[in-house]
Amino acid sequence: MSDLTEGLFIRDDDEDLFSRDIDGQLVRLDSPTESDYEATVTLQIDGQSVTVPRAEPLKDAQGNIVQDVEGQTTPRYTTIYDAAVRLYVEKPGDEVRIPIPTLCHQEHMQPVGVCRLCVVQIYGQKRGRRAAERKLLPACQHQVKDGMEVFTMNAPGPDGDRVRQTVKTVTELLTADHLKLAEPPELGQAHAPFNELGRVSERCGAIAEHLRLDVFSDPPPPAPPEKGRRKFDSSSPVFLVDHSACILCDRCVRACGEVQQNHVIGRTGKGANAGISFDLNDPMGESSCVQCGECMVSCPTSAIIFKPGTRVHVTAQSRTAGTLEPRELLADPIFAGISPKFLLWQGGLVVRRRLRAGELLCRQGEAGNTAFLIKEGTLEVSVTAQADRLRRGQWFRRGRSRTMATFLVTPDDVVVGEMSCITGTPRTATVRAKTDAEVWEIRRNVLDRLMRLPSLNRLFEERYRDRMLNVVLWESDLFKNLEADIYGEIVDFLRPRLAFVRVRPGQILFKQGDRANALYLVRLGHVRVGIRSFASESKLISLGPGSIVGEIGLLGLSPQDVSRPPEEVEAELAHALAAPDRAVVDLVPAGLRTSTCSALGNLEMARLDRADFLEMIRDFPPLRRRLVELSLARLRSNESGDPLLQEFVDQGLYEGRSILALDLDRCTRCDECTRGCVQQHGEESHGQPVTRLLRDGMRFDKYLIATSCRSCVNPHCMVGCPVDSIHRGANLQIVIEDHCIGCGLCADNCPYGSISLVPNLRGATTATPAVLPLKAANCDLCENERQHRKVEPQCVASCPHDAAFRLTGDELLQRVLGDQR
User: What is the pTM of this model?
Assistant: First the structure.
């Protein structure tokens, strides 16, 4: 008892709530703070020294850093496993060098420490002397300490022997009960080399045979049937579940809950009867499972596998492209961290394209549904500023184009085109082959998984942020048509000062009356701007991509400045900023916010602090003048509100590229628009007639907003598709491909009810099962990229009374306002 703090007894199971100081006294652990990002910890792993920050920003299930609107992050303590990643992972494919095996942990999931294969031997300081921890501790959860010595299963000597023997024993216990081939045999043979439990068993030399009960001369009596766990479940139309192969690692539970937010899978039972369950321990096919496959690709064993007949075959979008097989992909270091099940399940996700010098890879303004991994050669990337405008769902060229940037990319840059692939927006640059080159074209779901890997996540984030800066500024109202030399100076000024933040739907950026502290530039999404007068909201507007938010308060303007000429305001501001020997933040008083701004849907912005903002307008007079003019114009427009704007924003019309609006003064309810839609599409997609529109919906003035795809500026439906079957078409319409698995995620994501799930009768026979596979149906503006080259919606062409229109949100609003005048 001499080693225990007097009057306090702590069990080993409770020590994770406490730590020991240098004298061995128990102290309660505190939560990390952002100051811990700057504090460093130096430790040794198998004799190699590594220095890491004491804390790291919390990341979500997609590998993105969690931030609020102020750019603030949530700290979490750095773990031993994090330190090992920093030490061993330098380039793509280095993940295999990490000497700490895991079965329950993945980088994009919260660690739970249940498999216990990541245990390590730790030495620290107790009472000023080097001392070993009494038990092996999980590296995925244990916090790093300064001066800590860590020994993994790769370490020589007795410490490494202890870890190796422990990992070997645990692995043998798992393999004896749960290592088995998947069903059916042909699928089991294909998957066997990629079974993670089998790989760990080979790595640590586990021999499970001497633990099997059938080798004993006097085996124990058979155990009673397990009531809480099923043996085999084939009820799902897509997947097979073998509960006897489950090791209870909880990766499927976190994949379903944390990654996909479906919350279908959980644990059931206790002790020997513990297992995973779907909903209330229902068979998978009878549960609320949407068949997205995230649990299957996350499972490290053969407990969840796809049925052979449900393999996804994706057709290459280019005739010159050749599909890469899973084994060829897995041999490449970049794909070393991708689940083999994912690549085995879906074919055609990655295609090889060989380009000759001068050949075009992609063009600015086109739909960008894929990214390109650069394997050989050099590519030239050129960006043309403000050359394209969007109108009626089409891109067209107006005025002279101006090349703003040209640069070369090589295999060292790894990837190009990832911005459009991630965001679902048109290409922001034209890419040509400078020399003969080879690129691998990857779909969005592959890119999402690559970005979860530690090495690629850091690389992609750096590339994305650097390239996104130019896109944010080029698309912003503030920087349009600036002289090239001035624009280049501003970009160089802002590059180290801008921070990029992602905002959740409904989150408030700032409230009316708050002190102004930052400027926001909208990259993706829309901002809701509400202006209160007395006790009610008198005006509501929405600001989309390219808009700036918060400049009025930063300039210190108020509604009283509306009547002042811009020249007078600008001259006064320039005089104030010219005062010498004073901090720039003290030269102009911080103004008050004149409105309340919040996020309409998911929002991505660039944030510039007030001090940097004031420094920018001091050093760049043309920008200062433009800001003053823009701010005064907004203040004048805020004086009078329009009640239609509230409804316009509430119905989400602001983000529509092609809204089907029916003029009820002309419409006779003949339903020819619906019949024209059905006849146009026929039975090709689903084996039965399916309408892509409903002549029903909400009213906006005299127009009925029919339930049909709006081709949103930032499509909600494309986010997270597990097989990447939904994407932009040639004219930016939304297209659903034939390999859709009917998981329903796109329909759930669409806030306007435009996507429906319909039984797929293609190829159906009398032997078709009672439960037919589903396939999503959506309006593609009668311009599926394999059929037409122009947008000619049949619903509009079929209307005999000229009552149906396809309009952008702005066009619809202007038409209504024009009718009222």
Answer: 0.75
